[in-house]
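ok, trying the design again with the full structure, not the truncated one.
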């Protein structure tokens, strides 16, 4: 039993010891991030500063005998071979291996390595270049030629091989061999730079004829390519021509330019070709040929593609042309700009006006008509008058051009008729078009057509302006019966137009028919609705005054006062009575003022009553006695300043406003207020006097002594 206890006690002790050895997992209570954060960049920087990862360099080995050298070579070759065996496709391992053998002057071993590498990847350009450079570096010319031949045969589209090969042959002085390589290269139809390299090679050895033949072959080759690509390029033709010009073969250069123009034709015209051709002719002092070339190109190349052409032509004309030539090119340039504007927005009528103004200044009639037809074809898409207001002037200018500039009356009539047919008369019309057409027919001494046009306009779309124009025409022709009929039609159409009634009555007055004129006025003032009744009444009153019908004039005034109590009517009646020329005119005038003052006592607009009293006072000042003047002075109101509260639109207070009010002495309702105001003024005056006495006591003593 004791042993068991000891055993169990030892077991428990070992168990407790085992529990103590197991570390407990720390429980983090505060999981918030630390105030100072450490980044990976900081860790790397600290490692770099402490140089923890730097290894000491291997010790230098010095080879002292042949056995050590052979042993070193064996180990190095084994390393290279192992690297190649691991991954044969990594060409850098092969190149390093070959370059190491080359550094040991083991050329044959290096060749073997390069050949083995080419068996692995013969398409690797770097491998061929390193191989050939090794042979050239070690002056193995024939081996290098052999490698370049194999390279250009295997990979003929790699231009670098051809450049290196030709350069090597040229450096060796083998011009014929280099030319032969170039010829082999040209059979593959390389890119543009290869041809130019061949040409420059021949020029370095003064072989101009050979260079010309290469240019010929090249532009023919490029011509075939252009036909396939449908995008021919002119720069090679220009280079060929400049080559001929540089070597003073001017006839050949001109022929090249002419062949280029013929080759590209009118389908693929390029401004750069014509600019270069013109500059060549300019250098040869052939100014007329230059002008012809520019004009030929400008007439055929689209304007948006001829900006550079315009610029060079302008410079040429400024240098060698006259004023007319310079103006022509400027006009052409502006025409192009206007074409672009109207093409971008055909309904930009302002652009059309500018374009037509330019065309009319310096172009034949057919071209002007063509532009006008294009302009008027752009009819506004919406049938609203505001959209047609600018458009209609295109027709007007067109008709005026045909009549005044082209002297074509028949075409002018057609223009007017076409415009009038185009207008939607049921929705709106333009009276000016009808009137201009009628005036044109009158200038052509065709009065029936003019009357027919104006009659049609009144029937289709009657307007005040049309009636006035037609009546004015008949007045000039002294056709008064027609004028009467037109006025009757006009007043049936617009009975509220006071001006028409007045003009009709004035016509009858001129013709001496006073009764008809008076009857017209009576009809006019009897209309239920008028646009300017005050003008009509004034004209009627003036008419009766001219006829010296004073009683009828007074009657008219009384009838007018029954309709309105306006102060100007009373003043006008008073002035009429004053100017009537009768004995009791002053009495009548004063009676009118008295009556007006009584009638306007209850008028809300006090300013009107003040105006009446001012007029009365001026009358009494000129014609009245002292008693009448004193009486009118007593009737004059007193002008006082008042304040009233303002309110904003939302009902809130907007402050106070000062205004002037008039208080009439005969208004009994305001008498207490007047007394209060008088007492206030007296008190204010006394206050001012007492303040002045307090400010200057000496003055009071002096006054008391005196």
């Amino acid at each position: 039993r004791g042993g068991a206890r000891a055993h169990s006690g030892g077991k428990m002790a070992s168990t407790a010891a085992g529990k103590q050895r197991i570390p407990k997992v720390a429980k983090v209570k505060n999981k918030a991030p630390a105030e100072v954060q450490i980044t990976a960049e900081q860790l790397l920087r600290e490692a770099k500063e402490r140089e923890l990862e730097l290894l000491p360099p291997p010790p230098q080995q010095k080879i002292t005998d042949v056995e050590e050298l052979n042993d070193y070579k064996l180990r190095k070759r084994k390393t290279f071979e192992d690297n190649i065996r691991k991954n044969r496709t990594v060409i850098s391992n092969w190149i390093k291996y070959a370059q190491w053998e080359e550094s040991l002057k083991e050329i044959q071993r290096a060749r073997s390595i390069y050949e083995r590498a080419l068996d692995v990847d013969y398409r690797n350009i770097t491998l061929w270049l390193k191989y050939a450079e090794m042979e050239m570096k070690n002056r193995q010319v024939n081996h290098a030629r052999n490698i370049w031949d194999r390279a250009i045969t295997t990979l003929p589209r790699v231009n670098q091989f051809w450049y290196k090969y030709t350069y090597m042959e040229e450096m060796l002085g083998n011009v014929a061999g280099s030319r032969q390589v170039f010829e082999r290269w040209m059979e593959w139809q390389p890119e543009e730079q290869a041809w130019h390299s061949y040409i420059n090679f021949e020029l370095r050895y003064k072989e101009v004829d050979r260079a010309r033949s290469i240019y010929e072959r090249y532009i023919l080759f490029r011509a075939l390519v252009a036909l396939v690509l449908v995008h021919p390029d002119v720069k090679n033709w220009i280079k060929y021509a400049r080559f001929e010009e540089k070597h003073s073969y001017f006839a050949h250069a001109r022929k090249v330019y002419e062949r280029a123009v013929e080759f590209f034709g009118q389908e693929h015209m390029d401004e750069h070709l014509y600019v270069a051709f013109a500059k060549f002719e300019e250098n040869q002092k052939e100014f007329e040929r230059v002008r012809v070339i520019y004009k030929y190109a400008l007439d055929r190349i689209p304007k948006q593609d001829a900006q550079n052409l315009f610029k060079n032509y302008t410079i040429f004309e400024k240098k060698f042309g006259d004023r007319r030539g310079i103006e022509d090119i400027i006009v052409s340039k502006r025409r192009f700009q206007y074409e672009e504007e109207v093409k971008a927005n055909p309904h930009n009528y302002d652009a059309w006006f500018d374009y037509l103004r330019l065309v009319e200044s310096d172009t034949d009639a057919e071209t002007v008509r063509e532009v006008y037809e294009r302009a008027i074809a752009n009819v506004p898409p919406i049938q609203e008058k505001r959209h047609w207001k600018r458009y209609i002037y295109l027709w007007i200018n067109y008709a005026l051009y045909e009549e005044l500039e082209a002297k074509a009356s028949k075409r002018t009539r057609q223009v007017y008729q076409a415009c009038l047919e185009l207008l939607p008369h049921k929705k709106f019309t333009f009276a000016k078009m009808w009137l201009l057409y009628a005036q044109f027919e009158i200038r052509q001494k065709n009065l029936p057509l003019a009357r027919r046009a104006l009659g049609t306009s009144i029937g289709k779309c009657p307007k005040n302006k049309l009636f006035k124009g037609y009546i004015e025409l008949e007045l000039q022709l002294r056709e008064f019966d027609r004028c009467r009929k037109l006025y009757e039609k006009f007043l049936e159409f617009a009975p509220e137009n006071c001006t028409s009634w007045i003009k009709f009555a004035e016509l009858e007055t001129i013709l001496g028919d006073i009764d008809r004129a008076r009857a017209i006025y009576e009809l006019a003032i009897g209309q239920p609705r008028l646009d300017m009744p005050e003008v009509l009444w004034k004209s009627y009153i003036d008419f009766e005054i001219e006829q010296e019908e004073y009683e009828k004039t007074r009657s008219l005034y009384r009838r007018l006062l029954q309709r309105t109590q306006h102060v100007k009517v009373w003043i006008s009646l008073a002035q009429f009575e004053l100017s009537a020329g009768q004995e009791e005119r002053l009495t009548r005038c004063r009676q009118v003022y008295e009556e007006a003052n009584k009638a306007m006592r209850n008028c809300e607009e006090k300013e009107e009553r003040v105006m009446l009293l001012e007029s009365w006072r001026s009358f009494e000042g000129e014609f009245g006695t002292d008693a009448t003047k004193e009486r009118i002075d007593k009737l004059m109101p007193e002008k006082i300043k008042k304040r009233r509260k303002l309110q904003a639109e939302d009902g809130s207070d907007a402050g106070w406003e000062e205004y002037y009010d008039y208080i009439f002495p005969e208004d009994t309702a305001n008498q207490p207020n007047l007394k209060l105001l008088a007492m206030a003024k007296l008190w204010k005056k006394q206050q001012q006097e007492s303040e002045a006495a307090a400010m200057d006591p000496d003055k009071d003593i002096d006054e008391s002594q005196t």
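Keeping the full-length input from now on. Confidence is low (pLDDT under 50) at residues 1-20, 699-706.
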